[in-house]
UniProtKB/TrEMBL annotation, chains A, B:
It holds the Pfam family AMP-binding_C. This is Fatty acid--CoA ligase. Residues 458-538 form the AMP-binding enzyme C-terminal domain. Belongs to the ATP-dependent AMP-binding enzyme family. One of its GO terms (biological process) is fatty acid metabolic process. It comes from the Bacteria. The keyword RNA-binding does not apply. The keyword Ligase applies. Residues 33-408 form the AMP-dependent synthetase/ligase domain. Gene3D superfamilies: 3.30.300.30, N-terminal domain of ligase-like.
C-alpha cells in the first residue's frame, strides 16, 4: 500500500460502490411517480411505468440486433417518446446514443454517421430519403429501424430491420441493465460550427448525471423565484438532437415531471399543446421564442405562467420585453455543445432581486450567474481573472463535472479546447461585482475598429429595441481606414428605417452607454428580408460576411 | 486496450477531470454570496468571504502543526463558526476531520480518539477537564489547540499548541488546496449504538458532495412546498458532531444561505436566535422540538415560517400537532450515521398533497419518500421486495452514493452491514403504494407476543396523542404465556392515568387501527418522571429493559 492509497476509502468487499449511471435518474421517478404521464403531441399518452417497461423492450430489441457495450446507435427523429426511450435505453445498455442533427445536409449527416462508427440507426420516416442517398457509403451500418408516426412505411429502397413499434411488441419487458463504469461513453453528437468538419462531443454517464443534478439544483434553489419543481409540466422546444435538449429531458424525468413531447416545432402546434397540456416549463432559442410570441400576439393567447429558458444565442432585450408582455417568464441560460451544456442561468434570486424593470430586463437577458459546481472564470490571455467590474473583458473558461473531455478522434482540436486545463469557450465576456456574467461577443465576431473592440451582440441588442425592428445581426466588414467597421443587417416588422436605427444608437452614445465608434454608418445599416441561420437556428455570421456588400 | 476500456471516455491529456471535492461546494457561494453572513450566537458576525479566508488560515495553522494528507484532526466543540471552518478546512487539506461526540463518557471519548488515530485535537474550553483525564493515554496525540469563546483559558495541566484565534492570527490567508482523489477519506465519527464499542463511520469527499447535491435537490424540488431556497436562514439544531449535522452545513453553505451557529442548545437561546436572526430552516430530534414547543408555549412566542426537519427518532404525532399549532412547518427525515445520513424526507409534494389534516399529520410523521438517487428497498429475509401495501413488513436496505463503505478497522461488522451488497438498516418498515415509507420498529425493538409482531413505535405514537401525555416509550417484557408483552413508560404533563391511556388504545382497536394484542395491560402502563436517553437524545430502550419491573 502506497502512502497516498492509505487515505482512500477502500470499501469492505460486500459494499456497493455506487457508480453514477443514467439508470439511477429513474430510481426516484419510478418509485414515486409511476403514474405520471408522458404524451407525444397530445395524441399518444402513457405513464412513467409504461416508459420504464418500454426502455427494457428497447434494450431487448437492440440486443436482438446485436447491439453490445460500446456500439453506436444513431437516432434521427423529431422530439418524441421514442427519442426519450432512446435517451435512457441505449446508454443504459452500455451502448452509445448518437443524436443526429437532422437539419444538416445529407453530406454532413453522412460524415457524422460515419465518423461516429454508427452500426444501428433509428430513423423517422421523414428522413428516409436522406438515408437512401447515403446508405451505400455507410459500410459499418448494420441495421436500420424505422420510426413511424402512423405505423406505415413510405416507399423506399432500403433494407430494414423493421418498424420500431413492431419490433418493440416482440421484445421482452424485462432487462437487467448492467452496472457500468460511470465513465462509460453514453452519448455523442456533433457540434455545428460554422467552420471545418463537425466535431464529435462525448459525454459519459457520470457527466450526464452530474449535469442533471447540478443544473436542476441551480434552477430549483434560488429563493423566491423557484423556476422548476415536481409540479411543473415540461415541454422541450430545443430539439432532442441538439445538445441533449440542453440536458432537460434527463432532469425532468429525474424529478418526475409530466412531459409533453411536441414532435416537430410548428408554432401553432406548440402554442396549442402549451394550452391543452398546461405546459409550465420549456426552453428554446430566441428564433423560436420570436415565433411563439408572434403567434400568441396574432391569436391574443395569454402565455402567463410559462417559464422558458432561452439559450443558443443571446436573448435580445426587445424580444424579452415582448415575451414578458405576453406573460411569459423568460430568462437566459448559457452553455455550449461542449459544456454539458448549461453552465449559467440568468435567474432572479430573492436576495438582490432587481429593483427596476430595466434592471430585471438586463438580468434576464444576461449570460447569468454560474451554476453550482461550475468553476466559471473570465480571464485575459495570460489566464488571469479580469476584474469583476462589468467593463474588463476576457474569455470565459470553465471547469465543471459535465464538460466534454475531448472531440471524438480529434486529438489536436481536443488539446486546443482544453489548453491550460480549462475548457476555452471563445466567448468574450465581462463579469459584474455580483457575479453576473455578460457575454459581449464571440472571440471571432468581435469587431476591431481603429484599435478598439466593438461587441456585435451589444449593438444587435440595442437595434432590436428600435420600434419596428424584428431582428438584427451585426458583423465586422473590412475598412481601409479603420481596419474594420460594424455593419448591421436588420429585419423590419413595421415602419422603420436606417436613420431611426442610427438615431437610437446615437442616443445611447450620448447617454454614455455605447462608444461612438460602435455605431454603423447609415449606409452600413441594411434592411433585409431575413437573416441566414445555421441548422440549429443561430445567426450564420459566416454567411453574412460572404453576403455583405463589399462596397458599403 | 482491452475491450471494456474502449468504451470509457479517455480524456485528452490537457482536459481537467473533475473530482468531486468539498472545496467545490464553495465555488458558487464565494462567487455569488461573498457578502452573505455567518453569525455565532448573534455575537460574532462575518461574511462568507471572511469564512473562506479563515479556512485558508486554518489550513496554514494545521500545516504548521504538521498536519498532512491522511492525518486525523479531531474537533470537540459546540456548534460554532470554528466548527464550520473545520468542516471545510480540514478535509480540503486532505486530512480527516473527526467530529467527536462530546456527550460520550470520558472512557468512550478516549476509545474513539484512540481508535481514530487522532494526532491533533481542537477542543473547546468546556471539554478540557475531559481531555485532562485521558491525555496520557493518547500517545498518538501530538497537538492540542484550544477553542475559547472569550479568548481566556481555564486552569488546566495540559501542554497546548495554542489558542485557535491566536494561531489563526499568525497564519497566512492564502492556501492552495490540493486536487485530491474524490475517494479520499474526508470525515469520520462514531456511531453511538446502545451495544458494543462505538464504530467508526467514514465518508469521502465524493460521499459528502453527492449527499449535499441529492439531499438539497430532494428538499428543493417538491412542487408547491419548496422547503429550502437561497432566501432561507439556516440554524442547525442537530449538533455538528452528530452525523455532520445531518449534512446540512455542507448543503446550506453550498447554496449560500445566511447561517446562524447557536453554540450550546439552550432552548431559550435557540428561541431568541430564531427570532432575532429570522431563522427559517432548521433540523432537530424530537426531544429538542419538544423543548422548543414547550418554551414557545410558555412565552406565547409564534414560530410561524420555521421549517424544521425532525430526525434521529420518529416524530410523535402529538408533538407534531403541537408544533404545527405553534406555526412551525415540521416534517420527518430519515437516515442513520451510516447513510450519509438523509435517505428519505416526509415532504408534502404538490401532486398528491394530503387532503385532510389527519393525512397531512400522518405524512409529516412518516419515514417519508426516498430521496433522489437512493435505491430504497423494503425487503424480506430473502431480499425480496415486500408488497407496497402499507401492511407487509420488511427491513429497509439501501444503496446510494453517500453510504459509509465500512466501519473503521471493523471488517466483520462492515461485512455484516453490507451483506448482499445492500446496506442493512435494521429498521423494519412498510411501504405504501405511493412510495411513502413508514418505519414500524427497530429490528431489535419489535415485540413478539403470541406469535404476532407488535410495533413499539406505533403504540408509542398512539399514547402520545392522549391528552396530558408528554412522552411515551414501549418495550417488550418477558411473559410466561405470550413470550413477550408490551410495556409502556409514560411521562405525564397533565392530568392523565393508565386507564385513560388504555382506553385510548382500545378505541383504536375498536376502530380496527390497532391489534388487540398490542394494548398493554393496565399494570404494564407505568408513569415515570423521565425516560432515559442516549447521548444523542434517543430513547434508551436497553436501559428501559434493565429498569422494567420484572413482576409487572
Amino acid at each position: 500500500m502506497t502512502h497516498s492509497e492509505q487515505h482512500l476509502l477502500q470499501p469492505t468487499p460486500s459494499a456497493y460502490t455506487y457508480p453514477l449511471l443514467i439508470k439511477q435518474l429513474l430510481l426516484n421517478s419510478m418509485s414515486l411517480h409511476g403514474d405520471q404521464e408522458i404524451t407525444y403531441r397530445g395524441d399518444m399518452r402513457y405513464t412513467y411505468r409504461d416508459f420504464n417497461r418500454r426502455i427494457a423492450q428497447l434494450a431487448n430489441t437492440l440486443t436482438a440486433l446485436d447491439v453490445r457495450a460500446g456500439t453506436t446507435v444513431a437516432v434521427m427523429d423529431w422530439d418524441s417518446h421514442r427519442y426519450l426511450e432512446s435517451y435512457f435505453g441505449i446508454p443504459m445498455m452500455g451502448a452509445t446514443m448518437f443524436t443526429v442533427n437532422v437539419r444538416l445536409s445529407p453530406a454532413q449527416i453522412l460524415y457524422t454517421l460515419a465518423d461516429a462508427d454508427t452500426e444501428v440507426l433509428l430513423v423517422h420516416t421523414d428522413f428516409l430519403p436522406v438515408i437512401e442517398q447515403i446508405r451505400d457509403q455507410l459500410p459499418l451500418l448494420r441495421h436500420i429501424v424505422v420510426l413511424s408516426d402512423d405505423g406505415k412505411l413510405p416507399e423506399h429502397k432500403l433494407a430494414l430491420a423493421g418498424e420500431y413499434e413492431a419490433l418493440m411488441a416482440q421484445a421482452g419487458t424485462q432487462y437487467e441493465f448492467p452496472e457500468l463504469d460511470e465513465n462509460t461513453k453514453a452519448v455523442t453528437f456533433y457540434t455545428t460550427g460554422t467552420t471545418g468538419d463537425p466535431k464529435g462531443v462525448c459525454y459519459s454517464h457520470r457527466h450526464i448525471v452530474l449535469h442533471a443534478m447540478a443544473t436542476a439544483l441551480s434552477v430549483c434553489s434560488p429563493g423566491g423565484s423557484q423556476r422548476l419543481s415536481t409540479a411543473d409540466v415540461y415541454m422541450p422546444i430545443t430539439p432532442m438532437f441538439h445538445v441533449l435538449g440542453w440536458g432537460f429531458p434527463y432532469i425532468t424525468i429525474m424529478l418526475g415531471l409530466r412531459t409533453v413531447l411536441p414532435g416537430r416545432y410548428l408554432p401553432e402546434v406548440l402554442l396549442k399543446l402549451r394550452e391543452t397540456e398546461k405546459v409550465t416549463f420549456s426552453h428554446c432559442v430566441p428564433t423560436i421564442l420570436q415565433m411563439l410570441v408572434s403567434g400568441a400576439e396574432k391569436t391574443g393567447q395569454d402565455l402567463s405562467g410559462w417559464k422558458v429558458i432561452i439559450g443558443g444565442s443571446a436573448l435580445p432585450p426587445g424580444l424579452c420585453e415582448a415575451a414578458l408582455a405576453k406573460g411569459m417568464d423568460v430568462f437566459a441560460g448559457y452553455g455550449m455543445s461542449e459544456t454539458g451544456p448549461v453552465v449559467s442561468l440568468a435567474l432572479t434570486p430573492a436576495r438582490g432581486a432587481p429593483a427596476t424593470h430595466a434592471d430585471d430586463l438586463k438580468l434576464r437577458c444576461s449570460t447569468g450567474r454560474p451554476s453550482l459546481m461550475v468553476d466559471f472564470r473570465v480571464v485575459d490571455e495570460e489566464m488571469r481573472d479580469v476584474p469583476r467590474d462589468g467593463v474588463s473583458r476576457g474569455e470565459i473558461v470553465l471547469r465543471s463535472p459535465s464538460l466534454t473531455p475531448l472531440y471524438f478522434k480529434k486529438p489536436e482540436a481536443s488539446e486546443e479546447l482544453w489548453r491550460g486545463g480549462y475548457l476555452h469557450t471563445q466567448d468574450i465576456a465581462v463579469m459584474y461585482p455580483d457575479g453576473v456574467v455578460q457575454i459581449v461577443d464571440r472571440l471571432k465576431d468581435v469587431i476591431k475598429t481603429g484599435g478598439e473592440w466593438v461587441s456585435s451582440i451589444e449593438v444587435e441588442g440595442l437595434i432590436t429595441q428600435v420600434p419596428g425592428v424584428q431582428e438584427a445581426a451585426v458583423i465586422g466588414v473590412p475598412d481601409a481606414k479603420w481596419g474594420e467597421r460594424p455593419m448591421a443587417f436588420v429585419v423590419a416588422a413595421g415602419d422603420v428605417d436606417a436613420k431611426a436605427v442610427r438615431e437610437h444608437l446615437l442616443s445611447h452614445v450620448q447617454a454614455k452607454r455605447l462608444s461612438a465608434y460602435a455605431v454603423p454608418e447609415l449606409e452600413r445599416i441594411l434592411f433585409v428580408g431575413e437573416i441566414p441561420k445555421t441548422s440549429v437556428g443561430k445567426v450564420n455570421k459566416k454567411q453574412l460576411r460572404v453576403d455583405a456588400p463589399q462596397a458599403a
